[in-house]
Amino acid sequence: MRPSALFIVTGDPRSSAKPAEAIRIAAGVGTWKKADVIVYLRGPAVLALSEFVDEFIDEDNYSRYFPIVGEFGRPIYVQRGAPLLGEIGESPLKFEEVDDAQLAKLAAKSTYVLRF
Fold first, then answer.
1. How far is CA 83 from CA 7, 45, 47, in A?
2. Which residue of 58, 68, 71, 116 pairs with 20 in a disulfide if CB–CB is 3.0 to 4.6 A?
3. In terms of C-beta distances under 8 Å and separation of at least 24 residues, what long-range contacts does 22-25 make, across chains too?
4. Cβ within 8 Å of residue 25, ≥6 positions away
5. HEC secondary structure over 15-52
6. Model pTM?
């Protein structure tokens, strides 16, 4: 059984480079196929799913690496009811809303949990 890495991203892509870096790292780790990669976006980080990422810090990481993460065979998980979800427009990526109990289960099953 392969180890799994849960990337919990909470930073605001409008004001921090951390969410973009998390996506870049997740894509790199997943590409090696040595670990199952799970990405969860919480709070303002859900904006990373926007159809237009031009105004985000390190926006190239979203358009370049997020599609790779999207090909890992599972949706991007997002905080259920996140206030900014209504602002993302037509996301180019498949995502699924999960509540805190579901996030806790994902974390408990993961070998590694990384927070950005």
1. 20, 11, 10
2. 58
3. 22/114, 22/116, 23/48, 23/61, 23/62, 23/65, 23/66, 23/69, 24/61, 24/64, 24/65, 25/114
4. 7, 114
5. CCCHHHHHHHHHHHHHHCCCCEEEEEECHHHHHHHCCC
6. 0.94
**Is residue 114 within a helix (H) or strand (E), and if so which, with residue range?**
strand 112-115
DSSP label of 76 = E
CA dist., res. 75 & res. 54, Å (int) = 23
The DSSP code sequence of 47-71 is GGG-S--TTSTTHHHHHHHHHHHHT
Interacting residues of 54 by C-beta distance below 8 A, sequence separation 6+: none
pLDDT digits (tens, 9 = 90+) for 12-65: 999 999 999 999 999 999 999 999 999 999 999 999 999 888 899 999 999 999
Strands 4-9, 36-41: parallel, antiparallel or unpaired by DSSP?
parallel
Q: Is 111 strand, coil or helix?
A: coil
